[in-house]
Amino acid sequence: MTRVARAAAVIASLACAAAVPRRASAQQAAYRFEITPVDDSLFAFRAGAARWIHRGQRGIAVDPSRHDALVARFTVVRVAHDTVTALITGQTMPVTSDHVALLMRPRTPWYKQGTFWLGTALGAVVGAVVSTR
Fold first, then answer.
1. How far apart, in whole angstroms, are the C-alpha atoms of residue 30 and residue 51?
2. Which of 52, 58, 112, 114 has CA atoms 20 to 30 A from the CA of 121?
3. Angle 61-30-27 (CA atoms, 0-180°, nearest 5)?
4. Can you give the pLDDT of all 133 residues of the chain as single tens digits?
5. How far apart, in Å, do the first and last CA atoms of the chain sit?
6. pTM metric for this prediction
């Protein structure tokens, strides 16, 4: 393979890597959950398909009728099946079932991201192409 062909292969590989679509920033917003039973310092909500919720995770409760005004801060204390129990750690008003819980989805570790493995594979291919004489 000539040097020109190798350079063309490297440029083509880099162009392919640059063309990989990235996640839109709107997809990184907080997830909303409808609050169901409310106790004095505990409340519950259904997680549904959100399997990423775990014990110790922190979130906020907001009032959607008041343009998402902050109602309370909470910590997840229990996840059982699809029901999540949260402990209210601070509040500006009593939490009711009219409010919603907001949680941020944790970031995916770097070694579980497809872009990392795509870059590794492309780097190995480019390295192999460039190093062969």
1. 15
2. 52
3. 165
4. 576 566 656 666 666 655 555 554 444 578 999 999 898 899 999 998 889 999 999 999 999 999 999 999 999 999 998 899 999 999 999 999 999 999 998 888 888 888 888 888 888 888 888 887 6
5. 7
6. 0.65
